[in-house]
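A reminder from the course coordinator: this example appears on the midterm review sheet, so study it carefully.

Given structure:
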C-alpha cells in the first residue's frame, strides 16, 4: 500500500464489528517519547507509535500484564487493550513497566461500516489469523513488517524482499 499512513504497516485490530473496525499500527514509531506527552510521568523513555491517521491527539495503549493493569480488554491471547490509566502512570513512575510489556499509540486506525471488508475484497490487506505476542511488543519496528510477512508462509514470503518503491528498482 502506497498510502504513507499504512505503507509496510503491521496493524493489530482491536475491534471488528458490523459498525466498523479499529486498530493500531505497530511498527511506525514517532519521535516522541511518553514523557513528551505526559510530563507527570517520570520514565519518559517509553516510545510512542503512530496508531493511525485518526484522532492523532489521543493516546491509547495495549499491554500484556493484566496482573498489573486492571480493566483491560483481552483482544488476543495475552494482549490487552486499555485499562486503568492511573495504575499505568503509577507503574511507570515506579519503574514497574517496560516497553516489552506496554505499547503506546498516538491516534488509531479506523474503518467505517463495510470499509475494511471492501478493502479486504480488493486485496488491499494481507490478514494474519495468528501471531506471536512477543512480536507485538518487540522493539524492532524496522523488522516487524518483514518478520510478519515471512511468517505468513511461502505465498507471501517473497514480498519481504521487495524494495519499498519498486519503481526505483
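Designed residues:
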Amino acid at each position: 500500500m502506497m498510502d504513507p499512513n499504512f505503507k509496510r504497516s503491521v496493524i493489530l485490530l482491536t475491534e471488528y464489528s458490523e459498525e466498523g473496525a479499529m486498530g493500531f499500527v505497530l511498527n511506525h514509531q514517532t519521535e516522541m517519547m511518553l514523557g513528551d506527552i505526559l510530563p507527570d510521568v517520570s520514565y519518559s523513555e517509553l516510545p510512542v507509535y503512530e496508531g493511525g491517521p485518526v484522532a492523532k491527539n489521543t493516546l491509547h495503549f495495549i499491554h500484556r500484564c493484566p496482573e498489573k493493569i486492571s480493566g483491560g480488554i483481552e483482544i488476543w491471547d495475552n494482549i490487552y487493550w486499555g485499562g486503568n490509566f492511573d495504575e499505568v502512570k503509577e507503574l511507570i513512575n515506579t519503574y514497574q513497566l517496560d516497553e516489552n510489556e506496554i505499547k503506546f499509540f498516538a491516534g488509531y486506525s479506523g474503518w467505517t461500516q463495510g470499509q475494511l471488508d471492501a478493502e479486504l475484497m480488493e486485496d488491499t490487506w494481507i490478514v494474519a489469523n495468528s501471531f506471536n505476542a512477543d512480536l507485538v511488543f518487540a522493539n524492532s519496528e524496522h523488522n516487524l513488517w518483514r518478520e510478519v510477512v515471512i511468517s505468513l508462509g511461502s505465498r507471501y514470503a517473497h514480498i519481504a524482499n521487495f524494495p519499498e518503491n519498486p519503481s526505483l528498482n
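The two ends are 17 Å apart (CA to CA). Residues 33 and 47 are 5 Å apart (CA to CA).
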